[in-house]
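User: Sequence recovery, please. Input:
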C-alpha cells in the first residue's frame, strides 16, 4: 500500500462544516439509543437473513392478518419495519464512511509519526547544544520501556 496524504488538507472551516453536518445528523436521528454491551448481547443477531425474514413476515401480515392474536399490534410492527428499513441504507453509508475515515486517519497518523521519528532521530544525533536537549529527552520517553521485574522464583 503506497499512499501519500501530503497533498490532502482539511481546513478548520471544512472540519467545522463536517462537525456541523454530523450535528445535523444527530438532530435528524434524535431517537437514537445507546446500549450497554450486555444489552447488545441480549438482542438477536441481525443480518441479511433477518432482513429477508422480516420482509416476508410483513408481506404475510399485509395480505392476511386475521390469524394473529388480538394483542398483536400490526401498526407497531409496520412502524418498526419501516424504521428498520429506513435506517439500513444510512447504516451502510455511515459504515462505509467510517471505514474510509478510519483508514485515512491511520495512514495520516502513520505518516505524521514517521516524520516525527525523523525529527527525533535528527535532533538526538545533531541537536546537542542548540537548546533542544530537553525536548529530545521528552520525545525519548515515547520509546522508554518499563523495566520488567522478574517473577519471584519459588523453590
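Assistant: Recovered sequence (155 residues):
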Amino acid at each position: 500500500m503506497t499512499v501519500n496524504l501530503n497533498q490532502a488538507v482539511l481546513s478548520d472551516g471544512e472540519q467545522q462544516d463536517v462537525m456541523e453536518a454530523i450535528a445535523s445528523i444527530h438532530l435528524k436521528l434524535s431517537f437514537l439509543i445507546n446500549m450497554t454491551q450486555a444489552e447488545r448481547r441480549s438482542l438477536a443477531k441481525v443480518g441479511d437473513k433477518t432482513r429477508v425474514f422480516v420482509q416476508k413476515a410483513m408481506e404475510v401480515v399485509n395480505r392476511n392478518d386475521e390469524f394473529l392474536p388480538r394483542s398483536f399490534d400490526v401498526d407497531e410492527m409496520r412502524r418498526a419495519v419501516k424504521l428498520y428499513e429506513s435506517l439500513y441504507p444510512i447504516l451502510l453509508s455511515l459504515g462505509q464512511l467510517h471505514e474510509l475515515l478510519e483508514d485515512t486517519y491511520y495512514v495520516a497518523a502513520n505518516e505524521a509519526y514517521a516524520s516525527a521519528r525523523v525529527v527525533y532521530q535528527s535532533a538526538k544525533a545533531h541537536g546537542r547544544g542548540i537548546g533542544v536537549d530537553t525536548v529530545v529527552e521528552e520525545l525519548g520517553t515515547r520509546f522508554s520501556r518499563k523495566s520488567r521485574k522478574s517473577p519471584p522464583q519459588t523453590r
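The two ends are 52 Å apart (CA to CA).
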